[in-house]
Amino acid sequence: MREVAIVGIGMNKWGELWDKDLRDVFVESAGAAIDDAGVDHIDSMYIGCMTSGLFNAQEHIGSLMADYLGVTPVPATRVESACASGGCAVRQAFIEVASGMSDIVLAGGVEKMTDVSGDGATFSLATAADQEWECYNGVTFPGLYAMMARAHMHKYGTKREHFAQVAVKNHANGFSNPHAQYHVKISVEDVLKSAKVAEPLNLFDCSPITDGAAAVILTTVEKAKALGKPIIKIIGTGQATASIALHSRDLTEIEATRYAAEKAYKMAGKGPDDIDLCEVHDCFTIAELVVMEELGFVERGKSGPAVEAGETNIGGRIPINTSGGLKSKGHPVGATGVAQIFALVEQLRGDAGERQVEGAKVALAQNMGGSGGSTVCTILEAVS
Amino acid sequence: MREVAIVGIGMNKWGELWDKDLRDVFVESAGAAIDDAGVDHIDSMYIGCMTSGLFNAQEHIGSLMADYLGVTPVPATRVESACASGGCAVRQAFIEVASGMSDIVLAGGVEKMTDVSGDGATFSLATAADQEWECYNGVTFPGLYAMMARAHMHKYGTKREHFAQVAVKNHANGFSNPHAQYHVKISVEDVLKSAKVAEPLNLFDCSPITDGAAAVILTTVEKAKALGKPIIKIIGTGQATASIALHSRDLTEIEATRYAAEKAYKMAGKGPDDIDLCEVHDCFTIAELVVMEELGFVERGKSGPAVEAGETNIGGRIPINTSGGLKSKGHPVGATGVAQIFALVEQLRGDAGERQVEGAKVALAQNMGGSGGSTVCTILEAVS
After folding, report:
1. Which residues of B touch A57 (CB under 8 A)?
2. Over 70: is that where the pLDDT of B182 sits?
3. Residue of B nearest to A96 (CA)
């Protein structure tokens, strides 16, 4: 397999983009990535998107986006694994470049969620859960993660405030991210006073409904050097599945993340202690805590106290979600996994401004589908 | 890149399967493919599916199917390019094995179309067209292909009866295919007398609504030999995009098919004259005619007379859709591209019974999305 590097990144300003459609947000981001890479063509593209069928009544978006980006007839394939769709796009692009099939591949992600018709965003998002065994019985995602939160509190003594501290940190980080949906700092009290959604989770424990896209350009390390770009290598990728129905799993664990991380660490020849910073899938605050444990950054049950101690802040032992995470940056579901890579490449290039993690060389992205039914982990390394 | 072979195929009996759900039809087919291959595990899987979100209110089907197949935590990714989703699944599995990332990969496809809720099957299928420029103006797929049919008649003198002859041939072929939805032979008169759908296309010019799945197992040629299986190599793959909006293209051409075929032929070192039989995407009878021209089997405008002369019958110069095609075998959209490979492997193994093309060594599958906005072509060769 050939060595693969990321040479271009692009992302629009995320938010409620009522004046743009699905193709607008994608093309803006993909065009920016191509410009950033300085390439004159791409050989192929992948697009992570969870459910443009339900949000926009539009499938077949690989070709649609290739057309509007002006790159037909290049192959373009949409990939989907619920909210891990973006991570899958990056992984498929990696495999295609590594295989020798193509030299320059775009991995993008997009979701235009405010356009939703039909039964609304909560219904559309719930299709990432088990429709027959969960949704038809009235379960929605806030409810699923609330059950995980309660179980974690019960088993490990995790406090309500620990969840809130995740949101506070991520909003503080997102405050200076120009691409983020929200530029609002919040306090623990703000979180605790916000509207109840599914006990114990409040509104400020939940990631928002977002319109947005992101894209990255992958090529061989050899070509990256010829382009004169900073060499940010993909040194590990791991993907794993588990039951998408929460009742089939331990409520305090996300085994797909554990397996995906194990594979990525092994491929990279790295472990948790080698990771300088990390973007994780904080769709709800509880998710960030469980994921920290599955990635091996803390022992089981110790994630809450670690956040409280500031270990995951910028400048802390293992900075997490320096981009603002899903909570502050926004969560256009199919785009999230690609935006994580955008954020890490920015850091590994030393271009993260106020949010810069000093001396960052190795970084990990963890992108998750549903209540943890799938995960893609990607490990990047800056090579000087 | 490593050489890749298909060592297992599986497929359920297609039709209106009211007593089965999405996961049932997939697991039945995938299990059959694993059994046929005689492997004790798979490393990864891809699932082609166009719109389980709209048909079944269920996304995240990679993990769902991995769970019900009992293969978690293996990576499982859904791929989508409208009705070419199955072809994409096979292509991604090919790239993954060729790359060295995985040794044994399952490529499956599934669609459970009779469960459709919401706005119905025609609405769901129309999401493969350009929602904003086509569907919102009232266009549906029969209408799009009817325009292509009229243009072909006008430009080349293609006769109404030529379309009918495609349906007659495909029903004759599907009659003895145990997996096919319909086992009914029809006449040109039957087609011409069937209900009008979109002038000049009648009901019997249209592929049906179908529930079904198909799966194939890919591995290295080396492992295929060790398994003692017939060696059916994938020697060429090509994928291409074009505008999904028909008004942006020449109505008598399907350029994505032309480009995809060119790539596949080049990779395989073969041309149209080397192909012993072919499965093409006859979603409507006119599609089979245009595709024959794009694949280089006949000159432009000569497809109708070639079908009339029996050149595409079993025993003819270039047998097409010996499985019955989408018309008779059925068209569960995400599964179709994988079922084409099933049909060709059966032929190349010499297992096609009454439908066997004598001496078949090289075969081509052409799987298409929408009104031709995407195509995947795959060329297989039996190696003795």
Report:
1. 123, 127, 131, 135
2. yes
3. B95
Residue-wise pLDDT tens digits, A131-185: 999 999 999 999 999 999 999 999 999 999 999 999 999 999 999 999 999 999 9
Q: Cα A193 to chain center, whole Å?
A: 27
Q: From its phi and psi, is residue A221 left (phi > 0), alpha (psi between -120 and 50) or beta?
A: alpha
Q: What is the pLDDT of residue B221?
A: 97
Q: How far apart are CA A215 and CA A8, in angstroms?
A: 8
For residue A16, give the 3-state DSSP assignment.
coil
Distance between CA B78 and CA A174 in Å, rounded?
31
Contacts of A236 in chain B (CB under 8 A): none
What's phi and psi for A261, nearest 5 deg? -65, -40
What is the length of chain B?
384
Looking at domain A4-119+209-231, its CATH architecture is 3-Layer(aba) Sandwich (3.40)
3-state secondary structure of A288: helix
Q: With bands split at pLDDT 50, 70 and 90, how would you rate the model's confidence at B118?
A: low
ipTM: 0.97
Which residue spans of chain A are classified as CATH 3.40.47.10? 4-119+209-231, 140-207+234-383
CATH of span A140-207+234-383:
3.40.47.10
The A residues from 29 to 68 touching B (CB cutoff 8 Å) are 44, 50-51, 53-54, 56-60, 62-64, 66-67
Q: A365 and A278 in contact (C-beta within 8 Å)?
A: yes
Return the DSSP state at A252.
Answer: T
Distance CA A303, CA A293 (A): 6
DSSP states along B245-260:
SGGGS-TT--HHHHHH
* Bridge partners, A83 (sequence order): A81
What are the backbone angles phi and psi of residue B302, rounded to the nearest 5°? -100, 5
Which of B26, B59, B72, B110 to mutate against chain A (most A CBs within 10 Å)?
B59
Q: What is the CA radius of gyration of chain B?
A: 19
With an 8 Å Cβ cutoff, is A81 touching chain B? yes
Strand positions, DSSP E, chain B: 4-11, 44-48, 76-80, 104-112, 196-198, 201-202, 211-220, 231-241, 277-279, 362-369, 374-383
Q: Say how many CA atoms lie within 13 Å of A340 toward its Cβ.
A: 39
3-class DSSP string for A190-208 = HHHHCCEEECCEEHHHECC
Strands B201-202 and A201-202: unpaired
Burial of residue B225 (CB within 10 Å: 0-12, 13-18, 19+) is middle
C-beta separation of B321 from B288 below 8 A: yes
Interface contact flag, A81 B76, Cβ < 8 Å: yes
What's the pTM value of the predicted model, to 2 decimals?
Answer: 0.98
Strand bridging mode B44-48 / B76-80: parallel
Is 90 exceeded by the pLDDT of residue A120?
no
Name chain A contacts of B132, Cβ cutoff 8 Å.
21, 58
For residue A223, the distance in angstroms to the closest alpha carbon of chain B comes to 18
What is the C-alpha radius of gyration for chain A, rounded to an integer number of angstroms?
19
Residue among B61, B63, B81 minimizing CB distance to A78: B81
CATH 3.40.47.10 in chain B is located at 4-119+209-231, 137-207+235-383
Determine the distance from the C-alpha atom of residue A352 to the mean position of all C-alpha atoms in its chain, rounded to a whole number: 17
Do B241 and A74 make contact, defined as CB atoms within 8 angstroms? yes
Which tokens is B275 given? 């192909």
Residue B269, C-beta contacts closer than 8 angstroms, at least 6 positions apart: B235
Q: For residue range B7-39, what is the model confidence (pLDDT) as tens digits?
A: 999 999 999 999 999 999 999 999 999 999 999
Q: What CATH superfamily is the domain B137-207+235-383? A: Thiolase/Chalcone synthase (3.40.47.10)
Q: How far is A275 from chain B (nearest CA, A)?
A: 23
